[in-house]
Design goal:
The protein has ten helices and seven strands. With 229 residues, it is an alpha/beta fold.
């Protein structure tokens, strides 16, 4: 079962649901709709999902890691190629660490177990739509650790010493340091005495200057630059 929804009002985030189990897929879509999200497409196959996403242009894709035709990681790569700014929340029955790392490297913005409570899932979609990465408790530290490992590996390093670094304001750099430490927007706002919206604006401005697409990429960049110390 699959479909593409109608065009959406600009103020609402469009969500696409990809899962090969019809009952699960329909249940997730129903929960999202009841919570005020606009489900713009659904799909049960990875390749079809990439094609549908190119037409429906969702802001967030809720994606099952295990699909019958291709892996969730391959779908993420295809989605990011078609829609560089799309945010992907992976749902999986397994919390296997390598799966998490592979998904993050491919561009996933979040990873939750399917056993998560409905309220936790809906909160994750809301936060990811706002640009925050969301990971099942216990996995956030794993992801940050992998970023630090990649930053220490010359083959995975970011801009070299000779590269011209984009000029960030003092406040943007301050926010970036806290992003690198894994703090949420709410925690950063409380730490700096700013509003949640102001923190979001600083992050979006920094993403634009650095030509990055999401906060996961921003976190990796910050760690590569040694801002997590």
């Amino acid at each position: 079962m699959s479909g593409v929804g109608a065009s959406r009002p600009a103020a609402r985030s469009g969500v696409m649901v990809v899962d090969d189990h019809p009952m699960w897929r329909e249940g997730v879509a129903r929960d999202l709709t009841e919570a005020g999200h606009l489900v713009v497409a659904t799909s049960g196959e990875g390749r079809q999902a990439v094609r549908l996403a190119a037409a429906a242009r969702p802001d967030v894709v809720v994606l099952d890691l295990q699909l019958p035709d291709v892996s969730g990681v391959e779908v993420i790569v295809g989605l990011r190629a078609a829609l560089p700014d799309v945010r992907v929340l992976l749902l999986s029955a397994s919390g296997e660490q390598q799966s998490v790392l592979n998904a993050v490297k491919a561009g996933a913005t979040g990873y939750l177990l399917k056993s998560a409570a409905p309220a936790e899932f809906l909160d994750a979609v809301r936060r990811i739509a706002a640009g925050e990465p969301v990971f099942t408790p216990g996995l956030a530290g794993l992801v940050l650790g992998e970023f630090r490992r990649l930053a220490a590996d010359p083959a995975g390093a970011g801009p070299g010493p000779g590269d011209v670094a984009p000029r960030l304001t003092e406040r943007e750099t301050e926010v970036l340091r806290l992003v690198a430490k894994g703090l949420s927007y709410k925690q950063i706002a409380q730490r700096l005495g700013l509003s949640h919206r102001t923190v979001q604006n600083h992050v979006q401005n920094t993403l634009g200057k650095l030509q990055l697409h999401n906060r996961v990429e921003l976190t990796r960049y910050a760690i590569e630059q040694g801002l997590d110390g």
